Amino acid sequence: MSTLADFPIASKWPASHPDRIQLYSYPTPNGRKVGIMLEETGLPYEPHLVTLKDADVKSPEFLSLNPNNKIPALIDPDGPGGEPLGIWESGAILMYLAEKSGQFLGTGTQRWETITWLQWQMGGLGPMFGQLGFFVKLGGKDIEDPRPRERYINEAKRLLSVLETKLEGYEWVAGEYSIADMAIAPWLGALEFYGAKDMVGWADYPRVNAYFDRFMARPAVQRGLNVPDAG
Ligand SMILES: N[C@@H](CCC(=O)N[C@@H](CS)C(=O)NCC(=O)O)C(=O)O
């Protein structure tokens, strides 16, 4: 039987409340998904700030939990069968917390609709918006060749159109408010940080605009956005 103390990450980021879910994260779109989910469910948790610097995400302690050197990652000391569970990849974490809490995943058809849109975010919206950010705001912004920038602007527009169409008659992407919304909406918020809203024609997607505002108006979302507190 293992305990939290058996996880090397707990020596670099010690737990004050070892009985609570331990979150290792930073408030980026991928990190925020999990902070928001923890706030929405009310599950007790302890956040640890892991920066994106190599000294944190590439430290042996962090890699021992997530060999992919990316936040978010989490340990539930009370995982399946009462054993501690280490888990990473934000989509997997959202599904785990949804199953554990019995919230925001649904059952039957609703469950699969939620998983479908969650995977759409994980495989499409997140990676494509991330590349867009790289080429318009971050390391790739000075590259003269316009093709990478155009490629990701066009792909972002395409994805926003898909979401705009889906939201016709829907308040939330899978019908009920779900982990799919908690995955998608933080990435919509990244467009502001990238200074890319005009580039992708944000105003041309009124249902997406209203959806994002609806999401941001939730008190748990507001609390979860800065988890862990990065100051
Ligand atoms: N597919 C992963 C992506 C996570 C991810 O890209 N995390 C970024 C911050 S948003 C990160 O930790 N980057 C640090 C690095 O790549 O060194 C997930 O959804 O959890």
Automatic annotation (TrEMBL):
<dbReference type="GO" id="GO:0016740">
    <property type="term" value="F:transferase activity"/>
</dbReference>
<dbReference type="InterPro" id="IPR036249">
    <property type="entry name" value="Thioredoxin-like_sf"/>
</dbReference>
<dbReference type="Pfam" id="PF00043">
    <property type="entry name" value="GST_C"/>
</dbReference>
<dbReference type="InterPro" id="IPR004046">
    <property type="entry name" value="GST_C"/>
</dbReference>
<dbReference type="InterPro" id="IPR004045">
    <property type="entry name" value="Glutathione_S-Trfase_N"/>
</dbReference>
<keyword id="KW-0808">Transferase</keyword>
<feature type="domain" description="GST C-terminal">
    <location>
        <begin position="107"/>
        <end position="231"/>
    </location>
</feature>
<feature type="domain" description="GST N-terminal">
    <location>
        <begin position="18"/>
        <end position="105"/>
    </location>
</feature>
<protein>
    <submittedName>
        <fullName>Glutathione S-transferase</fullName>
    </submittedName>
</protein>
<dbReference type="InterPro" id="IPR040079">
    <property type="entry name" value="Glutathione_S-Trfase"/>
</dbReference>
<comment type="similarity">
    <text>Belongs to the GST superfamily.</text>
</comment>
<dbReference type="InterPro" id="IPR036282">
    <property type="entry name" value="Glutathione-S-Trfase_C_sf"/>
</dbReference>
<dbReference type="Pfam" id="PF02798">
    <property type="entry name" value="GST_N"/>
</dbReference>
<dbReference type="InterPro" id="IPR010987">
    <property type="entry name" value="Glutathione-S-Trfase_C-like"/>
</dbReference>
